[in-house]
Amino acid sequence: MNDLQENRESNESTALSIMIAATFTAEPVETSIRFWMREFGMSARVGFAPYHQVFQQLLDPTSLLATNRSGVNIVLLRLEDWQGDHPSAQENGAMERNVRNFIAAVTSAAERSPSTYLVCICPSSPSIAANRLGESLCAALEERIAASLSELRGVEVITTSELAAAYPVAEYYDSHADRLARIPYTPLFYTALGTMIARRLYAIQCVPHKVIALDCDGTLWNGICGEDGAEGIEIDAARRALQEFIVQQHDQGMLICLCSKNNEEDALDVFARRSDMILRRDHITAWRINWNAKSQNLQSLSRELGVGLDSFIYIDDDPVECAAIRERCPEILTLQLPKAPERIPGFLRHVWPFDRRKITREDNERAALYRQHIMREHVRQQSPTLSHFLANLGLQIDIAPLTTEAVGRVSELTLRTNQFNLTTVRRTEAEIRQLCRPGGAECLVVHVKDRFGDYGLVGVLIFEARADSLIVDTFLLSCRALGRGVEHQMLARLGQMAKQRGLSHVGLRCIPSKKNRPALDFVEGVAEGVKESAENGFLVRLTADFACSVRYDPEAGNRALESTPPSAFAPTADARARISLLSSIPAALYDSELIHKWISDARPRPDSDNPFTAPHTPVEKKIAEIYSEFLGIEEIGIHDSFFDLGGHSLLAMQVLSRVNKAFQIELEPTILFTSNFTVAELADGVLKEQVRRADPLDVATLLQKLSELTDDEVQTLLDNPAPSEPTKMK
Description:
By secondary structure, the protein is an alpha/beta fold. Helix content is 45%, strand content 16%. The chain folds into 4 domains: 3-205, SGNH hydrolase (Rossmann fold, 3-Layer(aba) Sandwich); 211-354, HAD superfamily/HAD-like (Rossmann fold), CATH 3.40.50; 361-367 and 385-561, Aminopeptidase (3-Layer(aba) Sandwich), CATH 3.40.630.30; 603-719, Non-ribosomal Peptide Synthetase Peptidyl Carrier Protein, Chain A, CATH 1.10.1200.
């Protein structure tokens, strides 16, 4: 199978392949990862490498990670697991040596693999954290890993500080489970870890948003500028934090717009007169400040910027306005700020689409590029003809081979470009590097500039020579360069290359989507070739001579490309569900406990041959409560087998650890293999262990007291047992 076909089929697979290797037992993290993947409508295949086989997985070309060719490989590290078997290991350099070798192994693996690598550094145990030397060493080594790997293409890093800042867990360590099965963390921490991983997977896999549109009164400041005046509105701590956050997003490549019901002069006067405004006028790309419906204004901004509504995030404090926009512009991610101002900073930190990955040069220059786009559109509207406009642009088009530095931008274009994209196949940086390696497919990139400025890298061609044809798998162009004849020159270049290589045809693969009609219209408008059926679409075969001759005629060409409007397609049900989830996370699923409860919401007891017998004693009730938490089942009978209810050995180890801690005992793991692990059996084991550990004198005293009771008094005790000592749950 050729590279392009293999890569295309991997893109068409509905399941994301997630393979995990760790220095500790990592399987409990699967529950929260799968939960988030399901919530976002993303099918996932999750696999785990054998315990503590990180180096083998990175170095062995036949390993689980190495053979994961189209997904994400996750490496979970707890640095203390590399300190060796002796207390002096920290001093003799075992951890430093392992970290150095790990950095080299990840670097080599990432270069060989088209998959993204996600390295997550997990916290050390409290004993290490309490040791100043050990804590300092772990912090220094973590910093070295992050600094070395973060700059590598195709490698992402999550640090302990990032994880703790997003999802803090006070009681994260489980000493019992660590000792029993090398499960070092509590269920709550595994939920936090899985959520952080899922959040990064979302950033890797999903098309990023481009525009933040902001209300003014009540959002950027407290008060009404039209009534209170520029000097009368208040910029409190929460609004300063919001503005600082928005400026950070601007600096990372987001376009900032205003959409507010106000007199334009009143709102802009705040930016002019208030020196304490952190968000300044020069941060704003465009605005609509008037008394029109905000949905109309957002659509107007979308047309002016040439950006689809599905690329917008809108922020407002007014629930009525938010509801109206959700109804009329369902493509937009609409965020209603919390009523309590002090909650605003935390709310913003938990909006997943605001997570920015590595910042490219295009990201840094995006605001300037769109300002130039707006200037061009104004000049275009004033020009008598399109030919006159294009003649005065001074357009310069450079089509050249892909360079290493441009891989990130090419990946970004495959992820973001919808309208002029013949196949809409999405590719990560690692996939592009693998696809375009020496001897593989070829890639040309298109740079455009004119008298207004540099458009940057706006076009991509990925193709390979096969039989008598140049087969083009990716043909895309950013919408800001459409309608200038760039796409015609790209096709002509393909024809020239085919002729130079003695090939008679150029084959353009086309996969129709809801959004790429402009690209398909272009092909059908210029093509004088044969249209053949192909998997998921069709192939247009042009003669190389015809492709070479394609030229752009502004007056006779495809007028739809002159100013392609943003997508007007209604979002699918899946897209609506995803938008709803994204808007609800910062308000309802913003910390580990809330998420853990949501994931663990109890379901009815499954059908069983065992009749249900409710727990009666305090010990049985406590154990059933623990079973219910781990299994997510409402009612647990004392004779229900933990394994028949869906539990597995690793989960049972965590349950055993929780039971040991709750009753301050040490039941051995052999109980997992010598019983059905029912509530009754475990409760019996707890009572026997408590008796075994009890002071003989206390037992004798208790027996003496029991012997003095009447039969009625004994029956009363059995019917009304004393409550057990409350135990703090994590």
